[in-house]
Design goal:
The complex is a heterodimer. By secondary structure, chain A is α/β, with parallel strands linked by helices. Chain A has 13 helices and 14 strands. In chain A, strand 9, helix 11 and strand 10 form a beta-alpha-beta unit. Helices cover 34% and strands 20% of the residues of chain B. Chain B is built from 11 helices and 10 strands. In chain B, helix 9 links the parallel strand 7 and strand 8. In chain B, helix 2 crosses helix 5. Chain B is globular and about 60 Å long. The chains are: A alpha/beta, B alpha/beta. At the A-B interface, helix 4, helix 6, strand 4, helix 7 and helix 8 of A face helix 3, helix 5, strand 3, helix 6 and helix 7 of B.
Chain lengths: 407, 340
């Protein structure tokens, strides 16, 4: 469909001019980069949520507490920020600063965020006091998924276009994709795109009932992988049309050269054996970018370390790349699976891979999956990287892929 | 840039809007605080086994989507885009309460699996075995509008030819009571009942005879009443029209203190225009504006404004252009232009 687009040469190219991130491995882009280059994971025991599963799970928690985030963001005491909103505002602020933007209203600017659970972290804590405690009642209006985006928009003073996506674990990639499409169509000049999700009892127990949580650190793409580690975090990218970025003398961090969204249409939670949705997303992203599979220098895989995802994704990668598989790794072993935020977290890592000309290692890998025999990159590897493919797949068959390019 | 034509508009709502060709002839007067939608005969569309696992929102969504495709004579859309403010709140409440009641033990995954916001879009895709573009928006009262904007973009940029778009929200059983409790404590809270519904449309870049056109849509997160007038005028100018081109305006009044936004627009720009309101019939929910989209499409098609929704005595001979305006709590404003 997308290659039918006419006047391709007239459409502006979309560039990344800023990034912000908070994850288990750090509270800034710089801290995340440092941890990635040091192969340093921050998966550990859960400390901020009171759950009976403490001994049976490992998670990627953001170090800062809610109180610390509130104080750093200088919010009033009576605020009704959920952790999802706190993480979101924190990372989005860094993205704007990183892009050197002081006045968001000098260009037509929008914000597109994403989340799976929205304000669930506060809802589950206060639900049974909603009808009695006035202290709890302020969290009724912060439950719905749009709330965190509205708080980010207000904090950044973006009054025009704002929206929220929720396509499970592919959410933020879809947010990046919409942002790029709106700039290409000339509807926005600048847009902050990404996602945020906080850990909650709701998701911990949800994934626990599906029996896809690992008791140990996760092992993406390993034959003996036992499931995923949940994580939390937020990440945002500032996208601009190339013309404006150049006019403003911005340094261009990366180009958004390809993206695609497809549905696996196989099962509500499981991925198909032939990875059809993932295959289509990767293939269509390559088509849009007018690139051949051999042009991809690094794949930041979805690689959740569940038996189902990693096999299905491996099959799909083989279908796209044949016998010439590029270097690939999953960075879930550093941060855990940050759900809606993961697409943006990993887009930031993909830009870092371009900037550092480095493939980040896939942690905890020992033996290849028998059926597919794929071996991820397990060491820091310096090489020429021009194009990075980043995959994000979610429940509901929602599969998205993004290609970030150096030029 | 391609135009967007409406090939079908289907609504399941608190009125008889689904199983009849009548256009709001016998309206149901609602006195309760919370009202369920008039549910269709699900068996006509979904197998009983599948329906048993689905909560109201998924069922309404899948059925309204199927009928929208049927009316548009479309087998497989190039994209499926849904908007939902509260998502699958019934299953969310169910899973959340089992966590709390059983202290995180004896849980089963079904309600968790179906609690994600994209469940409806996913179930539609699964039913159609449709591998195409699939997206879900959840942004309060701009959820359906966000889905429309995405669809418009896909069509205009020729990334798709036929797009299925819907707005869905279900009442659920618990959260809605807390929201209503807060409203009741307001000095002038929402006066219309809270409700639910699913409205779907097939948008297409292919012109069909008598097809209504989605001329344009804009959303504005925050603006003062005065700024809003300016933004609306700019929006009309962008579409090569002025206020005189508008034959009727569809407003999302819900009786709360923020209705002043509607009054300000009407008295400033549209005092001599047919005025339509609908939330006393559809009830309030985050995607109630999808009902307004269905209503507007029908008004243009049938060239008739049902008396239950006409709030002044202005009946134009012909209705060519409609403006839909909705906002929630003085924020999240949306303007939609429909044209014959």
């Amino acid at each position: 469909m997308q290659n039918e687009q006419i006047n391709k040469n007239d459409t502006p190219r979309v560039v990344v001019t800023g990034m912000g991130i908070i994850s288990a491995i750090g509270n800034s882009v710089e801290a995340n980069k440092k941890a990635l280059l040091a192969s340093k994971s921050s998966i550990g025991s859960i400390s901020k949520i009171n759950t009976i599963h403490t001994e049976q799970i490992k998670v990627g928690e953001v170090v800062l507490s809610n109180d610390e985030l509130i104080s750093q963001l200088q919010l009033p005491d009576n605020n009704n920020f959920t952790r999802t909103a706190l993480l979101g505002v924190f990372a989005a602020k860094e993205a704007l600063k990183n892009a050197d933007i002081t006045d968001v209203n000098c260009y037509k600017t929008g914000i597109i965020s994403s989340t799976t659970v929205g304000g669930m972290d506060k809802t589950e804590e206060h639900l049974k006091q909603f009808d009695t405690s006035s202290e709890s009642q302020k969290y009724i209006s912060s439950h719905h998924a749009g709330d965190s985006t509205k708080k980010i928009a207000k904090h950044l003073k973006i009054n025009e276009f704002s929206t929220t996506m929720s396509t499970a674990c592919s959410s933020a990639t879809n947010a990046i994709m919409l942002g790029a499409r709106l700039i290409k169509a000339g509807k926005l000049e600048r847009v902050i795109v990404g996602g945020t999700d906080a850990l909650s009892k709701f998701t911990i127990n949800g994934f626990k009932t599906l029996m896809i949580l690992s008791e140990d650190v996760c092992q993406p793409f390993d034959e003996y992988r036992k499931g995923l580690n949940l994580g939390e975090g937020a990440a945002y990218l500032v996208l601009e049309s190339e013309k404006i970025a150049k006019k403003e003398g911005k340094s261009i961090m990366a180009y958004i050269s390809g993206y695609a969204n497809a549905n696996d249409a196989f099962h509500q939670t499981a991925s198909s054996e032939n990875g059809q949705g993932a295959y289509l997303a990767m293939q269509k992203a390559l088509d849009l970018a007018q690139l051949d599979p051999k042009d991809i220098d690094y794949i930041n895989a979805h690689g959740t370390a569940t038996p189902n995802n990693d096999l299905s994704e491996s099959v799909a990668i083989k279908r796209v790349f044949g016998n010439d598989i590029p270097d690939f790794s999953s960075t879930k072993g550093y941060t855990g699976h940050t759900l809606a935020a993961s697409g943006a977290v990993e887009a930031v890592y993909s830009v870092l891979a371009l900037q550092e000309q480095t493939v980040f290692p896939n942690l905890n890998f020992k033996s290849k999956i028998n059926e597919t025999g794929l071996i991820p990159n397990t060491e820091i590897k310096k090489k020429t990287i021009n194009h990075v493919l980043s995959n994000s797949f979610g429940f509901g068959g929602n599969c998205s892929a993004l290609i970030l390019s150096k030029e | 840039m391609r135009d967007c034509y409406i090939h079908s508009a289907v609504s399941i709502s608190a009125q008889n809007t689904f199983s009849t060709e009548d256009f709001l002839l016998d309206v149901i007067v609602h006195n309760a605080k919370k009202i369920q939608a008039v549910y269709p005969n699900y068996k006509d569309f979904i197998s009983p086994i599948a329906a048993r696992r689905m909560q109201t929102g998924v069922k309404m969504g899948v059925v309204a989507a199927n009928k929208a495709l049927q009316v548009a004579k479309l087998n497989e859309p190039d994209a499926i885009i849904t908007g939902t403010g509260m998502g699958c709140i019934a299953d969310t409440e169910k899973f959340l309460n089992s966590i709390i009641d059983n202290n995180e033990t004896y849980l089963t995954p079904t309600s968790f699996i179906q609690s994600t916001h994209n469940t409806i879009g996913a179930q539609i895709a699964l039913g159609l075995k449709c591998n195409n573009y699939n997206n879900t928006y959840t942004h309060g009262s701009l959820s359906f509008e966000s889905a429309l904007i995405d669809a418009q973009l896909l069509l205009q940029q020729q990334e798709a030819k036929h797009v299925l778009v819907g707005g869905i929200d279900e009442l659920g059983v618990e959260f809605v009571d807390y929201v209503q409790m807060i409203e009741a404590n307001e000095s002038k809270g929402i006066c219309v009942p809270f409700s639910e519904g699913a409205a779907f449309t097939v948008l297409s870049s292919e012109k069909k005879e008598n097809a209504i056109k989605l001329q344009d849509i804009i959303t504005i997160s925050e603006a003062s009443k005065e700024e809003l007038i300016l933004k609306l005028e700019d929006f009309l100018t962008l579409n090569n029209m002025d206020t005189k081109a508008i034959d009727a305006i569809i407003l999302g009044n819900n009786g709360d203190v923020y209705d002043i936004y509607y009054e300000h627009i009407v008295t400033s720009l549209f005092s001599n225009v047919a005025r339509i309101e609908y939330k006393h019939l559809s009830g309030e929910f985050y995607t109630a504006s999808a009902f307004a989209f269905w209503l507007g499409t029908n008004v243009l098609q049938k060239q008739y404004i049902p008396k239950e929704v006409l709030k002044n005595s202005i009946q134009n001979k012909s209705i060519k252009t409609l403006l839909l305006y909705n906002q929630f709590k003085g924020k999240d404003h949306s303007f939609i232009l429909l044209k014959i």
